[in-house]
Amino acid sequence: MDHSYRAVLGDHNGNLQQPDRGRAAKAFTAGETAPPPVPVDAPARIYAFVDDLFFLAKINETARKLGVKVEFVKTDKDVFERIGQNGNDKPSLIIVDLSSLTSKPLTIIPKLKSKLKKDTNIIGFVSHVQGELKVKAQEAGCDMVLPRSAFSQNLPQLLRRHSVQEDDAADHSQPI
Q1: Which member of 80, 95, 143, 173 has the lowest number of beta carbons within 10 Å of its beta carbon?
Q2: What pLDDT, on a 0 to 100 scale, did the predictor assign at position 42?
Q3: Is residue 155 part of a domain?
Q4: Which helix (H) or strand (E) holds 104?
C-alpha cells in the first residue's frame, strides 16, 4: 500500500503539522527583548483577589512575562494597607475571582469602590453558567465581569493597559 499521501497530509491521522498549534504563542519575537524584571520595592498598580491556584499561577506567569507587578491579597484591608505603604498611590486595577468562597467578593467590591472611586477599575471573572452572580457583581460595583475563558484570553492586554502610570501614558501620547 502506498502511503506517500501522508507526507502531504501530515501525520497518520491526516492532521497537518503546525508548529505553534495548541501551544501558547511566543511572548517575544527575535528582535524584541524581554521586559526588565520588576523591582521588589516597586509599588503595585494591580491587586488580585484570587484563590484558584490555576488562575493565580496564570496571572503570576503572565505578569512576570510582561514585567508587571501584581500583588495577591485576601481582604480589602490588605489593599488599603498596601496603598498606604505606596504613598497613597491608588491601584489602577483590582481583579476579583467572584467564585471565591474565602474573600467574599460581593461584600469587598462595594467597600473598594466607595474608597477608590473611579481611579480604580474592578474586573471580576466567573464561570459562564453563573449569570446571577455576574449581575450581582455588577450591581455591587464591578466595572466589568468576564467569563473565565474571556478573562484568560484577555489577561495580557488587561495587565499591560493597567500597569502603565497615567503620567507615563501621557508622555507616550505626545509627539516627539
Answers
A1: 173
A2: 59
A3: yes
A4: none
Count of structural domains within the chain: 1
Specify if 16 maps to a domain. Answer: no
**Spatial distance between the Cα atoms of 73 and 82, rounded to a whole number of angstroms:** 10
Which residue range forms the structural domain that includes residue 102? 41-164
Whole-prediction pTM: 0.70
Instruction: Give the pLDDT of residue 87.
Output: 63
Cβ–Cβ under 8 Å, residues 41 and 82: no
Q: What is the dihedral of CA 146, 50, 152, 54, to 10 degrees?
A: -140
Sheet with strand 121-126: strands edge to edge: 70-72, 46-49, 93-97, 121-126, 144-147
Three-class SS state of 155: helix
CATH of the domain at 101: 3.40.50.2300
The verdict on residue 10 lying in a domain is: no
- State in Å, rounded, how far the first CA of the chain is from the last one: 67
Specify the pLDDT at position 76. Answer: 87
Q: Please, what are the averages of pLDDT over each run of 10 residues along the chain (176 residues)?
A: 56 53 50 56 80 94 94 89 76 92 90 87 92 92 94 95 64 45
Residue 20 CA, distance from chain mean position: 23
Indicate whether 93 belongs to any domain: yes
